[in-house]
Amino acid sequence: MMTFFAILALLAVLMAFRMPIAFAMGISGFVGLAVQLGPRPAFAVLERTFFDSSASFILVAIPLFILMAELLTSGDVTRRAIFACQAWLGHVKGGLAMATVGASVILAALVGSSTASTAAMSASAFPEMRNHNYSQRLAAAVVSVGGTLAVVVPPSIVLVVYGVLTETSIGKLFIAGIIPGLLTALGLVVVIKVIAHTTDQAPKGDPFDLGRAVKASRHILPLTVLMVLVIGAIYGGIASPSEAAALGVMGSLILVLLQRTLSFLEFSRSVSGAIRATVMIVAIVACSAIFSNYLAFTRITHGLLEFVATTDMSRGQIMAIIIVALLVMGMFMDQLAILSLAMPLAFPTAMALDYDPVWFGIVVTKTVEIGLLTPPLGLNVYVASAQTGVPLSKIFRGILPFFLMELVVLLLLLLVPEITLWLPGMMLK
Amino acid sequence: ALSETLSLGDFQSTSHIVSVEGTTKWMAAVEKATEGKITFNHFPSEQAAKSKAQLDAVSSGILDAALLGVLYHADVLPLNSVVGLPGYYGSAVAGTKAIQAMLKEGPMRDEILATGVTPIYGFVLPPYQVLAKTRLGMPADWQAQDVRTSGSTQAMTARSLGAVGISIPGPEVYTAIERGRLDAVLFPLASVPGYKLNEVVSHISTNGSFGGYSFVMVVRSDLFNALDADAQQAMIAAGDETALHVAQAQDDSVNELIAQWKADGIDTYSFTSDEMAALNAAMAPVTQDWVERMGGEKAQQVLDSYNAQLSQ
Amino acid sequence: MFGKILEKIEDTLHLLGCLGLLAVVGLINADILLRLLFKLPVQFQFELTELYLMPALATLSLSWVFRVGGHLALDFVPELLPGLAGQVVAKLRLLLPAAFFAAVSWKSGSFAVHALLHGDIEYGVVDWPLGWAYAVVPVGCSVLAMRLLFDALIPRASEETQ
Ligand code: NA
Ligand code: NA
Description:
Largest interface: A-C, 59 and 53 residues
Distance between the termini of chain B: 40 Å
Number of helices of chain A: 22
Main location (chain C): membrane
Number of strands of chain B: 11
Protein name (chain C): TRAP transporter small permease protein
Distance between the termini of chain A: 48 Å
Family (chain C): Belongs to the TRAP transporter small permease family.
Subunit structure (chain C): The complex comprises the extracytoplasmic solute receptor protein and the two transmembrane proteins.
Radius of gyration of chain A: 22 Å
Strand order of the largest sheet of chain B: 7-6-8-5-9-11
Bound molecules: sodium ion
Number of helices of chain B: 11
Oligomer: heterotrimer
Order of helices and strands of chain B: EHEHEHHEEEHEHEHEEHHEHH
GO molecular function, one term (chain C): transmembrane transporter activity
């Protein structure tokens, strides 16, 4: 237990002194393993962690969706689309930020990965909000938070993994995610409205002009075509979600070439940018795998969850402890690492307490989604910071009100299971 | 030796039947038989190492023991991949008896020992079946069907039947079938509820044999050899018992699943003997190819003893 | 001098990573189109992407990404702390990861060499030699280790750091 806190302190110190997150997690995980298991096994862990963490077909969705976003952005397509939304909503205070949330919901229905979604919105919506004198802090926070919608709104890689780990219907989970996803989006809009009316971070745009709005709407057409292509490929049975991402890249490329808005320089910059973000994410995934490995061998999580399973506390208290434990894990770990570490004990516990597996899946997903926004490891904030150049500390501060709203939504889902279970109950008997 | 606590790696989750009726039972039996001298720290769900890294983790000392999915390690255990071939065992019990015998002595055991670990017991999944939106019987029905397969042997199995073998990551299979990207999938029936594939297919074969899958429990050799003879014997005896138990439990559970799916209105069908003969004839080249790729003579020897064991 | 060579190596590896991503796009699209139009899928696409291209595009550019400030770090504490302690912190921030990635390169490198010598094969649509798939990790990590060591010894005027 003492060494565990020493390792946590080491991680905190390394990160505080501006060592890259990935390096800090790798080093402290490695030191922890060396203390826990001895140096030989600790070195042995280094043999294949990077390879095993990167050699996965499902991961191609990350560089592909980021490349798609980069191409569209450098080729002006996304900017024009947001320009169109701006024409409809810009006259409202905070309207452009709300339009960004709306666009994030649409993107969430295209993308199963929250980092890819954040990258796309950072590259397109963020500069647009900055051009309209939104504060850096609010603009970067909105794209970071909007990106988390991709995890709950189907298709979602996290829901699929939960379904596989716990043998819960993926079809039901997907449908169950829809209303909580929309509820989250609504909560975000409310926060934006409050911020816009109490601060000067989200100024009003030009007055509304129907003719201009209708005219600007034609700019949405290319993006709609692309969406139909990608969603159509998945739901029409032509491609799996990761493959559809590659179709999306090709479609975007053709689109920007047709519009003649892409130079070779911008093209190579897009590819380079996609690689840059991917390398950063995979380095974090691989190094956090080393750290998770250490956590597994301490059996800390095991002991914690086993205690919960054997105590005589009430049903609600135990659920509260599970949620808090997941939130704390979310501060340090990747979403998928949390699922694989916690579900083997948390799921049977929840089932023993007679909770619904689909409801529990949405609650767990929502909880790990919040973890994408919390320091020190808040992957979405990292991606947004990398794409926008806004410092991490500034985004984390900007996220605070949205984070509180996310907790409110989580509490609603916990207290009113019908929000989650009504739609799948209606659609699937 | 005094008491030992072994770290045991496992890529399956604790709710999987292989864990409930196999690994967990075995650990408990060993702890009981050795009166607590040998205990385990269990690391399920790839917590300690990824599925493909379990063997390396044991030989390098990260773990002391692991339940290996043998087909994940075909690069260093090529002969053991014989179990993946289509058209051989018909039930988990039959396949397990053959694998257990071949792990006791012979090239398959030697190949595992050469990696620095000792096999304790092994068992198989019930043979892979085909799940589809139409009834796939004679090879003609399989023409140009998009069939999800995992690994090269299955891909070749699909091709030998005239179908197209398609690789799709496990978590994406559900959507791929639901949306029609796939026409069919070769799958172990026990894992069907886990992926909820019964929600999206209408026909499930019950007596096919489209390849197999084996698990082997291994312990690092230097550790195992240092245990006293009683403890070694206790682990092996508990293993022999567990292997047959988990095989039988899987066969029973598959039969229950089939009954359940039938009640749900899914066409659970048996191949006729004509269909079976035609399928096995069409799939024969898969075995030939395996023998050639795995290095001829030794592979042929393993195959012969596999055949001999299965016909007992 | 050595700095220039290091940059050239980083740029070359990064270019290879970028080409890897374009190859993924090309292969998957070819796979989809060919199977859609002619029922002729590019069978090896999945395995090539998973075993070779993904690890390559995720690790070859590790050092380039570090050079351009792409590995994210927290920024609550000022970049340069005053005094001797500040200098020690600035050095350790580079030397510790340099040692870590040197260890990763060494272990993953001997793992790759072992697989090459042993002739480990992934039996797929074709026989994939695994050693070459593993090899990209030590390549990317060792260049990163060199970059970290080089920066620790000869501090660079920070370009584009975040
Ligand atoms: Na989504
Ligand atoms: Na977090």
